[in-house]
């Protein structure tokens, strides 16, 4: 019985793996997409456009009338469709966890409170069933991010079609994630003793955090040769090679966290969450801190807030001149809805191209990969998608082609396979 059970488990496992399409091979022939409307990602739109790419890099993006001669190219006619940059999902556990209720598939969190030495990229699972379902809606890159504790660890920018994490990485260890301690709010009068304990614990955490940064700053000035994984991981914050992502929502916590980082010599800071960021836009602009907005499809956090505040937050930051990107922060399978988060922002004030930039060019700039991707421009990676309709509209979004670094991606996934399987079954019964 034991061997029969093990054989069954192995069969089911192999069957599951088989549902993940094999990664696409490297581009071997120049490709020319022609006839579509090109959305560059920086606000520009070109009708009757053409995009050419070779060896994974874009070689032409502009009007079809100025495109290179078709000789030697694989010409793909996409007249009537739309070409977009591949979307980028920041601050996600995609690739780090598959099934939330199955502990063995979750590798997004390490034990402990201060874990700057934890690296998300080595836990990134390219065989996840979830990844193909996400890229089918145009999301081609993600920022794999650990969670938990006060300092969760380092995130990395990864692409969604690879054999292993080494192939998938676009930018390794782009930044460290700090969950700024929340200020306890006054509870009911009979819970005041608990409030005092919460405040004491918070002060202790802040003291320990300050001590860690003080030691890390001193360590970064010392001669190389000494080994300290935690302090070494923080070193990049002081020379600008890494970003500090401060996760905070309340206005007081945001200001407190940014001032802490500035006081300790952190060069590059990004705010993640930012529910109250619209209240302190002058401060954010003065400190040159961009925002990754989460919780667009959500109810307001406070009863006194405008019921539409989460939907309007991108527009409010756009009007204030704050650089921002959007993230989908619901269940992992829902990350395919990233383009529709941007679409919601269009309904509440942004133009379509501003919303597109919030999930492409802006996010690439915030993550420090804008020299490689985020827009469809000559010299950048050929990360792009073709949709027969508006990519940001749930009613018309239909990705027909996708390329990552010039490689044509197989858009089949487990859900499409099951749909086709049962469609054939029930059609045969008619």
Automatic annotation (TrEMBL):
The Amidohydrolase-related domain sits at 312-391
User: What's a single GO MF annotation on this record?
Assistant: hydrolase activity, acting on carbon-nitrogen (but not peptide) bonds
Keywords from the UniProt entry? Hydrolase, Signal
Question: Where does the source fall among the domains of life?
Answer: Bacteria
**Statement: the UniProt record of this protein carries the keyword Nuclease:** no
> InterPro entries in the record, alphabetically?
Amidohydro-rel, Metal-dep_hydrolase_composite, Metal_Hydrolase, Metallo-dep_Hydrolase
Q: Which Pfam family is an annotated match for this chain, by its short name?
A: Amidohydro_1
Signal peptide boundaries:
1-18
**Protein name per its UniProtKB record:** Amidohydrolase
Which taxonomic lineage is given here? Bacteria, Pseudomonadati, Bacteroidota, Cytophagia, Cytophagales
């Amino acid at each position: 019985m034991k061997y029969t059970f093990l054989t069954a488990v192995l069969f089911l496992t192999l069957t599951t793996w088989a549902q993940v399409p094999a990664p696409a091979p490297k581009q071997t022939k120049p490709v020319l997409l022609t006839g579509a409307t090109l959305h560059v990602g920086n606000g520009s739109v070109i009708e009757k456009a053409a995009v050419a790419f070779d060896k994974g890099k874009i070689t032409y993006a502009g009007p079809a009338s100025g495109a290179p001669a078709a000789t030697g190219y694989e010409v793909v006619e996409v007249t009537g469709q739309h070409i977009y940059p591949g979307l980028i999902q920041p601050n996600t556990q995609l690739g780090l966890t598959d099934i939330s209720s199955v502990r063995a598939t979750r590798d997004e969190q390490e034990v402990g409170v201060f874990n700057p030495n934890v690296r998300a990229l080595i836990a990134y699972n390219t065989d996840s069933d979830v990844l193909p379902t996400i890229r089918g809606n145009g999301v081609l890159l993600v920022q794999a991010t650990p969670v938990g504790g006060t300092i969760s660890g380092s995130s990395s920018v990864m692409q969604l079609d690879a054999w292993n994490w080494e192939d998938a990485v676009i930018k390794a260890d782009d930044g460290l994630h700090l969950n700024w301690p929340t200020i306890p709010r006054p509870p009911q009068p009979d819970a005041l003793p608990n409030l005092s304990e919460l405040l004491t614990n918070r002060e202790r955490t802040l003291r320990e955090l300050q001590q860690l940064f003080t030691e890390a700053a001193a360590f970064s000035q010392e001669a190389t040769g000494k080994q300290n994984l935690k302090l070494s991981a923080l070193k990049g914050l002081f020379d600008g090679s890494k970003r500090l992502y401060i996760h905070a929502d309340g206005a007081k916590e945001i200001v407190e966290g940014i001032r802490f980082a500035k006081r300790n010599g952190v060069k590059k800071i990004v705010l993640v969450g930012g529910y109250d960021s619209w209240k302190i836009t002058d401060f954010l602009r003065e400190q040159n801190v961009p925002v990754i907005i989460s919780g667009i499809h959500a109810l307001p956090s406070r009863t006194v807030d405008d019921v539409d505040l989460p939907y309007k937050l991108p527009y409010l930051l756009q009007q204030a001149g704050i650089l921002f990107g959007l993230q989908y922060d619901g269940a992992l399978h829902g990350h395919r809805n990233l383009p529709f988060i941007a679409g919601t922002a269009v309904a509440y004030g942004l133009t379509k191209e501003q919303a597109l930039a919030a999930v492409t060019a802006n996010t690439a700039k915030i993550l420090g990969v804008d020299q490689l991707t985020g827009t469809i421009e000559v010299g950048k990676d050929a990360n792009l998608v073709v949709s027969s309709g508006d990519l940001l509209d749930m009613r018309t979004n239909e990705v027909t082609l996708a390329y990552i670094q010039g490689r044509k991606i197989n858009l089949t996934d487990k859900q499409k396979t099951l749909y086709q399987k049962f469609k054939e079954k029930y059609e045969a019964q008619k």
